[in-house]
UniProtKB/TrEMBL annotation:
Pfam families: Glyco_hydro_3, Glyco_hydro_3_C
Lineage: Eukaryota, Viridiplantae, Streptophyta, Embryophyta, Tracheophyta
Signal sequence, renumbered to the chain: 1-20
UniProt keywords, alphabetically: Glycosidase, Hydrolase, Signal
Protein name: Glycoside hydrolase family 3 N-terminal domain-containing protein
Amino acid sequence: MKLLNLSLLIHLCSLLLVSTQPTDQPPFSCDSTDPLTKSYKFCKTTLPINRRVEDLVSRLTLDEKISQLINTAAAIPRLGIPGYEWWSEALHGVAFVANISQGIRFNGTIRSATSFPQAIGIEARGVYNAGQARGMTFWTPNINIFRDPRWGRGQETPGEDPLVTGKYAVSFVRGIQGDSFEGGKLGESLQVSACCKHFTAYDLDNWKGINRFVFDANVTLQDLADTYQPPFQSCIEKGKASGVMCAYNRINGVPNCADYNLLSKTARGQWGFNGYITSDCDAVSIIYDEQGYVKEPEDAVADVLTAGMDLDCGEYLKNYTGSAIEKKKVAVSDIDRALHNLFSIRMRLGLFNGNPAKQPFGNIGSDQVCSQEHLNLALEAARNGIVLLKNDNRLLPLAKTEITSLAVIGPNANSSETLVGNYAGPPCNPVTPLQGLQSYVKNINYHPGCST
């Protein structure tokens, strides 16, 4: 009875350690003050990550395993493991997207962030260290090929050139994950985790009654190899991305997230991908619900897990993996393989190494978010990114001594939201075109004009 009481006491202490961490402290596992921590191999940082993950996965019940297969992964209090949110965005700076579950919040000390990859990774870690993040996995960059200007998400991408897009992917991933510009510095540790998306041949939202959920891209093997795959290959082989997102659409009849040749044979086998593969949000459910590719939900679960997908952005795996196992469509070994990839990333992020303040990126504080260095970097990037297409009569640059008044017309002239694009957080110190001109020319007449 005494041993039982002691066990219950230790278990209750573990629950308290998970649930009562101060709100300004980032969530982490393997707290050195937890009496159970010393007995867990998965907390021993001297062991290789694969052995630590094997130990952790072996301790989980089937229900606990299934709870980790979705983007909002549940806490496992008995092991001192807090909940984890896999979904965060950072395309145009550490982002906050309203009305979705996400790993980043701007409701504490930090209320804004800078853009551009090098700064994004540092500031994302700073947000986490400040206790305003439940996840360090960012689903960015978007490296789809922008072939058709009618695609509404084209502004997220670098453009239509596979070579340029590939080079962009490599630099973006290295910058955000904390690697050097040339690569090779990072090793096993991750500042944050980048995720190249949407894998692959994805560039349609809605056209003539065909939407992105049911679109079947008929792509020749040559076009796939020459156009759509090179950015992802560069992202993985040179950028060493730790995440990949499979897209909604099908390619030549097969859903991307259920394509073994794409996920396992190509990404992992040929390109040596060492990370996790997530679905786009609800991409697993549409395989059955909208594409009609399979006969029942459990078949969709079986197809994506055996194809090599690890994480479901949604709840389909949570709802149907158990019944898929009962129907012998899925083996527990498929789940264990997915969990190995998922927990490996969390360990590479240092989230199972004890107090984050004592880890390699623990010295990144809130003072490095919106720092002057990062603001200068953003300004330099903006200047270098501007292309002047036309300058009749050499009107630009404006002669400050000669221009006494200006008319500024158009809704975007006074909109900071338009400047930052989508998947962006609150900018540090936004200056609209109107505000910039007002600081340059004294007499400004502004009219929003047409807003639609």
